[in-house]
Amino acid sequence: MSTPINTRHADCHVFLVEDEDSLRQDLSFLLQHRGYQVTACASAAEFYRHFAVKPASVVVLDIGLEGEDGLSICKHLRSHNPLLGIIFLTARGLRDDRVHGLMTGADAYMVKPVELDELCLTIDRLEDRLRLAQVNSLSAVSAARAVADVAPARPAPQWRRPARPPPARWCGPLSWERA
After folding, report:
1. pTM of the model as a whole
2. Sign of the C-alpha dihedral, residues 115, 117, 122, 123?
3. Region of poorest pLDDT, from 24-33, 48-57, 165-174
4. What gap in Å lies between CA 102 and CA 111, rounded to an integer?
5. Residue 60 near residue 89 (C-beta atoms within 8 A)
6. How far, in Å, CA of 114 to CA of 112, rounded?
7. What is the mean pLDDT of the chain?
């Protein structure tokens, strides 16, 4: 059964970095059918060229790419954008590979073949996290602006010469009193 196009994802841009042509084309088509904006890339170099022009909210990476591998791409992306959603989609399914991929900075590690529904739900959760982070940062900025707008303007402090103490007067043999 085919799932219809979902307009909920219309503003979610997903990069798919996969060197296997048939899988890249199939996944790109299926994700677009689900309503995602997809940019499919065959290599790290192609990905970097496209990502520099139009960043995305989620990146789906294969680890075994020619040239630069998915792990180094993940490290680079994570160091520049901690909120970016990163999903590894790879044939490497050993426990050590999965742990290493997650320690590198990926949010999810999925082994091929992957269920499309599972991949879409993972993308959705990452998209939700990004939106929440944006709302929180906007709320903090707007709260700071609201406080600045409501708070009364304080006059600049003016420096005054300290007042002189009153003159002392004689009050008896051993005391002086200030007036």
Report:
1. 0.72
2. positive
3. 165-174
4. 13
5. yes
6. 5
7. 82
- What separation in angstroms does the CA of 8 have from each of 12, 96, 128? 8, 36, 11
Chain centroid to Cα 30, Å, comes to 25
The SS3 of residue 10 is: coil
Burial class, 16, CB count within 10 angstroms (exposed 0-12 / middle 13-18 / buried 19+): buried
Q: Are 63 and 96 in contact (CB under 8 A)?
A: no
**Higher pLDDT pick, 144 / 110:** 110
CA-nearest of 49, 58, 55, 46 to 18 is: 46
Residue 127 tokens, joined: 């998209």
Q: Identity (one letter) of the amino acid at 68?
A: E
The continuous run of DSSP H or E covering 59 comes out as strand 58-61
**Which residue carries 């059918």 as its tokens?**
33
Give, in order, the Cα–Cα distances in Å from 39 to each of 1, 4, 36, 115, 123: 25, 20, 10, 20, 14
Q: What amino acid occupies position 139?
A: S
Encoding tokens for residue 140?
């903090």
Q: List, for residues 47-105, the tens digit of each pLDDT value.
A: 999 999 998 899 999 999 988 999 999 999 999 998 899 999 999 999 999 999 999 99
